[in-house]
Write a structure and sequence with these properties.
Elements (H helix, E strand, L loop, with lengths): L2 H7 L3 E2 H8 L2 E3 L5 E2 L13 E3 L6 H6 L4 E5 L9 E4 L2 H13 L7 E2 L4 E2 L4 E2 L4 E2 L4 E2 L4 E2 L4 E2 L4 E2 L4 E2 L4 E2 L4 E2 L4 E2 L4 E2 L4 E4 L4 E4 L2 E4 L5 E4 L4 E2 L4 E3 L5 E4 L4 E2 L4 E2 L4 E2 L4 E2 L4 E2 L4 E2 L4 E2 L4 E2 L4 E2 L4 E2 L4 E2 L8 E3 L4 E2 H10 L3 H24 L1
Parallel strand pairs: 4-5, 5-6, 7-10, 8-11, 9-12, 10-13, 11-14, 12-15, 13-16, 14-17, 15-18, 16-19, 17-20, 18-23, 19-24, 20-25, 23-26, 25-28, 26-29, 27-30, 28-31, 29-32, 30-33, 31-34, 32-35, 33-36, 34-37, 36-38
Antiparallel strand pairs: 1-3, 2-6, 21-22, 38-39
Length: about 350
């Protein structure tokens, strides 16, 4: 049995208790106990599963699970269910409950390198081969995995987790409950150069990066320090892997940046924005609150709040869908147009002869 399964077997909860945790309503035996959560195909007889949409109902009928988390609109079902308006969110909360592990602080490993005048909170965990520069501040219950580098006077807030080989350069600030995945660099120099004839002269990048509370940053991301002032990633932002945020960019609260998004310097991204995979954004523009940009779009001008754009250059998504429907027909349309031009030319020649 896998460690995960062993962990789940140690946790028992009734459907009534679980429904209260998830904000759902039990339909069936509320005293039934479950020990974990798994997919429709993999769930065992003591586990609960979940159904994110009614199209998966045939798979639900075949599951071995003891119970299921289901949409409110699910028809009556012979097994106990927890009905909820958002099954996927309920699944996330249930999985977090069943897989949660008690935090056991490890202290500061003797093979970590700790600078002078470092301030540490209570119950920190600092693994071997971590480097903490002079004057750093590390909050309560923060975790720094092997290979983490904290530059001088940088700050890591309480309960933040920095996974292996994360780099936080000098003076950069991470808030509380920040999660940074392996290989990410926070505070590398912004890409700033001035021309002198045919040569490029580096512009000193003397600002910082500030990452606010409850941000999660994917693996192998790069967030550049500001030329002056700060690059600012606000509360609740979530980034996928391989995201690039340029110098002096501001990313608003609860914004999502999917893999390989690149944002050039001094752009302001509003609150609740979603940028799809491989979206490229030029510098010195603004993207309004709640905007959504489709994958591989190129954004070269300001975006109004709430707009939904696709394409490169980006334009309204509905129009983009229409153009995509036309695109495969362009060769046929070109042939038709050529034929019409030929006929028109023949008609003009006939008219000119009269």
């Amino acid at each position: 049995m896998s460690p995960k399964k062993e962990r789940q077997k140690m946790v028992k909860i009734t459907l009534k208790e679980l429904a209260a945790l998830l904000g759902g309503k039990v339909d069936g035996d509320p005293t039934l106990e479950v020990t974990g959560i798994a997919s429709l195909e993999e769930a065992g007889g003591e586990e609960i599963t979940f159904l994110s949409g009614l199209k998966y109902f045939p798979r639900l009928e075949k599951t071995r699970a003891a119970a299921a988390i289901v949409p409110l609109s699910l028809p009556s079902f012979p097994k106990p269910v927890i009905r909820t308006s958002n099954p996927y969110l309920a699944y996330a909360k249930a999985q977090a409950f069943f897989t949660a592990k008690p935090y056991l602080p490890r202290g500061v490993n003797s093979r970590a390198c700790i600078g002078q005048d470092v301030k540490m909170g209570q119950d920190v965990s600092i693994f071997p081969f971590v480097y903490v520069g002079d004057g750093c501040q590390i909050g309560d219950r923060a975790v720094l995995y092997p290979g983490v580098y904290l530059g001088e006077f940088s700050q890591v807030g309480e309960e933040s987790i920095l996974y292996p080989n994360v780099v936080v350069m000098d003076r950069c600030i991470l808030g509380r409950r920040v999660i940074v995945h392996p290989g990410t660099v926070i505070g590398s120099d912004g890409f700033g150069f001035a021309r002198e004839g045919t040569r490029y002269v580096k512009i000193p990048q003397v600002g910082i990066v500030q990452v606010d509370d409850d941000v999660e940053i994917g693996a192998n991301c790069a967030i550049d320090r500001a030329a002056m002032g700060k690059t600012w990633v606000k509360r609740g932002v979530k980034t996928d892997n391989l995201v690039q945020i340029g110098h002096n960019v501001t990313v608003g609260e609860d914004t999502v940046l999917v893999a390989q998004v690149g944002i050039a310097g001094s752009t302001v991204v509003g609150n609740g924005v979603a940028l799809g995979g491989q979206v490229g954004v030029v510098g010195h523009i603004s993207i309004g609150d709640g905007a959504m940009i489709g994958a591989q779009a190129g954004v070269a001008q300001d975006v109004e709040p709430g707009q939904v754009l696709s394409g490169s250059p980006a334009f309204p998504h509905r129009e983009w869908l229409k153009t995509q429907a036309v695109f495969p027909k362009l060769p046929e349309m070109k042939r038709t147009l050529a034929a019409l031009e030929k006929r028109m030319k023949a008609l003009e020649e006939k008219i000119s002869l009269k």
